[in-house]
Amino acid sequence: MKKILTAFATACLLFVGFCSCDKNQGTTPVVKGEFSEISGAEDRTVAAQSVDPINVHFTSTAFWRATAPSWIRLSKDYGLAGTYDVTLTVDANPETSSRSGEVQFSCGDDVRTFTIQQNAKVIEPTVETKSFSFRLMSFNILQSTGEAEGHTWSEYREKPCKEMFEATQPDIICLQECRRTQLNFMKSNFPQYSYFQYAKDGVKKAGYENVEKCDDDGIFQNGGHRDVIALRTNRFTMLDWGRYWFSDTPDVSSYSGPLFEDGGTPKLTLWLKVRERETGIVFYVWTTHFFPNGVNGRKQCGIMSVERMKAECAEDTPVFFCGDLNLAYEHESLLPLRLWMQHAATKAEKADKFPTYTGFRTNQATWTYIDHIFYRNAVASTYKVVNTPIENGTSVCSDHFPIYADFTVTVE
Q1: Are residues 67 and 149 in the same domain?
Q2: What is the pLDDT of residues 317-350, one digit of tens each?
Q3: How far apart are CA 263 and CA 246, in angstroms?
């Protein structure tokens, strides 16, 4: 009898189970469980890009699962009871609006939900890069007065100078020792340039109250034709200009003061603020002639030049400084220039190492390297000492060789 009752009970249970399964076919049975520990499952805001992976660490007592939007990728989204580290990888937000996603971890009726807020993609403003290239020449043309026999301007040097300029085609020319006759020659043969020299705009611009006040200014009386800057007119516009002497009284022709008096003669520096027409880029060009003698005066030439450039030019402005410095590159007096600027002859990708001053001597061992082109906020690709024979040869153009450098200026 006992066996019959046991069999009957078992049958009843099977029947109830069968009926229950049939009635709820396709549903998931409720699983009891919980997270005994969980960390990392908290709300947060993340960047639009380059988001560090998020780690969720937990221990579940039963089967668990996790869900998230498609842009939040889970290293694992389900598992049995146990301890896990699930990594959430957040994709970069391609949209210019922020987005929010809900992440859910569930184990039985223990549900942990947190939100990831992602910032909008930042559209960086387009940075316009402008660039231009040009050739800058520096040349001590040797004044056309008091020349040594066999090196007079009109008889020996004018024609090869014309050939040299035609062959090299500089865009900007910086001349030293250029006298009135030579400037007239330049203007007549090369009208494609605009020429700027000290006192070009008259007595007031020269810094004098009237003509009588400038009697002692030999450069002014000569029309300012010592330091000259020539700009190719179809490429450049002059915005401003200035000049100074290496002196305790730099605004008048002098070399006064204990730091300058061993210079022996007034030396002028001329500068232009220039705009390149096509790009609108603004830059500065300085041409100068340092003292040929003395100790203190020549040291002050470098110091004063850098101080003047720093005062006039913004830190990121392209600046070009060239001329007859009467000193070798390594000389201590050029240290201020070496520290603040780059040197075309030592930095250009292609550069000559040829001397620049001959003194018309035939013995090359006596030639020296005293003409220089310094620059900053630009790139020099080529530096050249123009010593290639052009008909009679550039060695007869002057007691200095012309030098030039090819530059590229780029600004954002």
Answers
A1: no
A2: 999 999 999 999 999 999 999 999 999 999 999 9
A3: 9
